[in-house]
């Protein structure tokens, strides 16, 4: 007789595949993503550096990236059983079933590993520069995605083990978090000590190349790969990329041993994990239901540091802006949100190892990251609430104040980011200023794209269709600016890339302002969107 868990997994996979094939929106979206990856793969075959960089550099990048994601997921999950290992249907069907808790947990872990691999889908679109700079082929790209999936999987499993072992004991939970982040701080200190001589030379006006080599030598080899879980996953990925099978076997054994230890911590705990996942399953089901109804859900932190209360300023539509400032102060660091800090850290880290990609490559990568930060920004969440529609002010004025804080934060973020990236890339001050202008113009363009999609497709219930319309709209809106940049570089070569970036920024701003003007009545009627 076939195992019920195997049968359940097979039926779920079959139904998901049929759901994609029978849904025109999902099918078009899947074809669109495949076409984008094909375009990326094709461009990767034509993107070539004069000489391939050392593979240790790529391993070092993966170590830093995996470690950052591990700490982020662990921090968010260790204080609550937030890992979506089981859905509400699993709770309803599996928990009352005559199956051992060990088998159900194994089913949840395998399912979670599959979801972690799916979350690494965006890495596919990094194939172009990785192939051109480090010679990564498609099997190597799949190995990188595997390492990313393993990192998320172990981060979620570590957070679950920490939660079930320290549930109800706040001191123990804090002690575990302090130990993990203390180990990460010690790891960072060791990395700085390993690079101290190049850092001192760089402070004295030296080159970045010795620092890159020292960083790759520490984070891309032993002992830099010994940081638990994330370092081991990066070591396994790097060994697969270079064909070092004994080293790959060593890291695979370390990961297998860690898996056994974590499973032992969970299974031998007196607190039954059934109760720990019930609230998580209910929360996840509420989010899915809201998404099917075309609604957005806003994640509210469990503990909010309130600090100063009240808006302080603002009247009418301007109160929206000051409310956003208060929310920004409570949810981020200075004017940067946590998501912006993560994306900027990725860009800065990659700038060390992508100097061969040049100015355009770094700007393209930062713009790609900015696309998601703007799409997930505060403006869409503001439309959930009725208050913005009830303010007795002109809709255009309300719209501008609703966008003001995000645009100011994006501008300040661009200045800080390219001040750091400019030093790393050894840009001239003029080139750095034009990069800031181009990034700010893309922020305005992406924001205008948000407004356009809400105005035109706000009544569409399918979030997949809205997501597809958003990317198509941004593609159409971005083409004139890119064309203007290329035209200036070709027709006026004396202006070089800086002139092209200035033309790109000017065209982007004109298009964004035109779109915002045409959609100025978005906030006049709440019925213009389905939420």
Describe the structure.
The protein is an all-alpha fold and 531 residues long. It has helices spanning 4-22, 24-46, 55-77, 88-93, 101-119, 127-134, 138-166, 170-194, 196-203, 209-219, 230-242, 245-267, 273-292, 318-331, 338-353, 358-375, 378-382, 387-390, 395-425, 429-457, 463-491, 496-518. Helix 20 (429-457) packs antiparallel against helix 21. It is globular, with a radius of gyration of 25 Å.
Helix content: over 70%
End-to-end separation in angstroms reads 47 Å
Question: How large is the radius of gyration?
Answer: 25 Å
| Average pLDDT rating | 78
Outline type:
globular
Q: What is the ordering of alpha helices and beta strands?
A: HHHHHHHHHHHHHHHHHHHHHH
Number of strands: 0
Main beta sheet strand tally, sense and closure: none
The number of helical segments is: 22
Low-pLDDT parts are none
Features of this protein?
mainly alpha, 531 residues
Spell out the blueprint of helices and strands:
Elements: H1 4-22, H2 24-46, H3 55-77, H4 88-93, H5 101-119, H6 127-134, H7 138-166, H8 170-194, H9 196-203, H10 209-219, H11 230-242, H12 245-267, H13 273-292, H14 318-331, H15 338-353, H16 358-375, H17 378-382, H18 387-390, H19 395-425, H20 429-457, H21 463-491, H22 496-518
């Amino acid at each position: 007789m076939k195992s019920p868990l195997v049968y359940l997994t097979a039926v779920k996979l079959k139904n998901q595949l049929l759901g994609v094939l029978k849904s025109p929106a999902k099918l078009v979206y899947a074809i669109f993503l495949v076409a984008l990856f094909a375009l990326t793969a094709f461009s990767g075959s034509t993107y070539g550096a004069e000489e391939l960089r050392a593979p240790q550099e790529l391993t070092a990048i993966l170590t830093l990236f995996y470690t950052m994601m591990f700490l982020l997921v662990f921090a968010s999950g260790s204080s609550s059983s937030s890992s979506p290992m089981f859905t509400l249907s699993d709770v309803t069907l599996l928990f009352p079933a005559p199956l051992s808790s060990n088998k159900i947990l194994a089913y949840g872990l395998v399912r979670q590993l599959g979801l972690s691999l799916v979350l690494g889908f965006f890495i596919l679109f990094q194939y172009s520069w990785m192939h051109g700079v480090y010679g990564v082929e498609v099997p190597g790209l799949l190995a990188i995605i595997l390492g990313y999936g393993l990192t998320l999987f172990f981060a979620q499993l570590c957070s679950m083990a920490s939660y079930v072992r320290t549930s109800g004991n706040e001191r123990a939970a804090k002690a575990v978090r302090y130990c993990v982040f203390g180990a990460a701080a010690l790891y960072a200190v060791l990395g700085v000590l390993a690079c101290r001589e190049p850092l001192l030379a760089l402070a004295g006006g030296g080159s970045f190349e010795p620092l890159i080599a020292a960083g790759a030598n520490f984070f891309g080899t032993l002992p830099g790969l010994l940081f638990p879980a994330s370092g081991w996953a990066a070591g396994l990925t790097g060994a697969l990329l270079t064909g070092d099978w004994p080293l790959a076997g060593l890291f695979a054994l370390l990961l297998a041993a860690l898996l056994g230890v974590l499973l032992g911590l969970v299974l031998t705990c007196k607190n039954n994990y059934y109760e720990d996942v019930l609230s998580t399953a209910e929360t996840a089901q509420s989010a899915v239901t809201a998404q099917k109804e075309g609604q957005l859900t806003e994640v509210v932190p469990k503990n909010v540091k309130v600090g100063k209360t009240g808006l302080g300023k603002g009247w009418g539509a301007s109160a929206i802006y000051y409310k956003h400032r208060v929310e920004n102060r409570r949810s981020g660091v200075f004017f940067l949100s946590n998501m912006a800090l993560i994306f900027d850290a990725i860009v800065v880290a990659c700038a060390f190892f992508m100097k061969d990609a040049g100015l355009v490559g770094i700007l393209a990568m930062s713009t790609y990251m900015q696309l998601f930060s703007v799409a997930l920004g505060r403006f869409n969440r503001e439309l959930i609430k009725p208050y913005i529609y009830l303010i007795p002010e002109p809709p255009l004025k309300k719209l501008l104040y609703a966008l003001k804080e995000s645009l100011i934060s994006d501008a300040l973020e661009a200045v800080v980011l390219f001040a750091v990236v400019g030093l790393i890339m050894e840009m001239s001050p003029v080139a750095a200023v034009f990069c800031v202008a181009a990034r700010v113009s893309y922020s305005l363009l992406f924001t205008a794209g948000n407004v356009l999609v809400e105005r035109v497709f706000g009544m569409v219930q399918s979030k997949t269709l809205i997501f597809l319309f958003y990317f198509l709209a941004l593609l159409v809106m971005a083409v004139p600016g890119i064309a203007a940049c290329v035209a200036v570089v070709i027709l006026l070569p004396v202006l070089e890339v800086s002139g092209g970036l200035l033309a790109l920024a000017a065209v982007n701003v004109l298009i964004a302002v035109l779109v915002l003007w045409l959609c100025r009545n978005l906030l006049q009627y709440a019925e213009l969107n389905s939420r």
